[in-house]
Amino acid sequence: MNLCGCQALLVNEEDGSSTQLFENIPEVQADGMSELFWNCYIATPCALVRASALPDQPFDESLRIGEDRDLWIRLSSAGPVGLIQEPMVEILVRKASYSRDSSALIEVDVVPMIERHLQTFADRLHPSTRKRAYGKLYWDIGAGRVAANQWAEGAGFLMKAAMRGFRPVRALRLAVMTSPPIQPIKLAIKRAIAPARPQSR
After folding, report:
1. Which of 9, 16, 91, 102 is deepest in the core (most CB within 10 A)?
2. What is the rounded CA–CA span in Å between residue 3 and residue 53?
3. What is the pTM of this model?
């Protein structure tokens, strides 16, 4: 085993709430590589790597994002991946985090990287892995675009995710609920149900 990770807690900086990094991932994954194509369940602070398995230049420095997953895929191609189920790391998620709005970098850097690995390991991957990998990429790009008020582009990617069976209901709902015609309605509802502010004397 060349790669091992652990459970981590993603802590929201604003309210202190936390969620687990991954769910329903077994302690040992015989085929951990396939999962990594669509679910990067190993965060860099959680990774434990066998030194003898590392190449001279572990990370692809041309990648501005996803360089860790690129390395995890390469390492996991040689055998199973281990996961400690107990949370051993807390990762602070900031509102202005570099990785929060990275849809453009995902499209430019991560998509070609995943495509390269899909081609390299094509003979070892089930067709559903390829479908799900693209679905997750399109979901990430689409969700990032609509959050950045680029609705037309974002909705297009969300539709692509839905067509590949990745969170189809959520993808379509997000595309509809962030559409320009719906925004004034949502704003009016929020104003109507907001508690009235006390008038100053």
Report:
1. 102
2. 9
3. 0.84
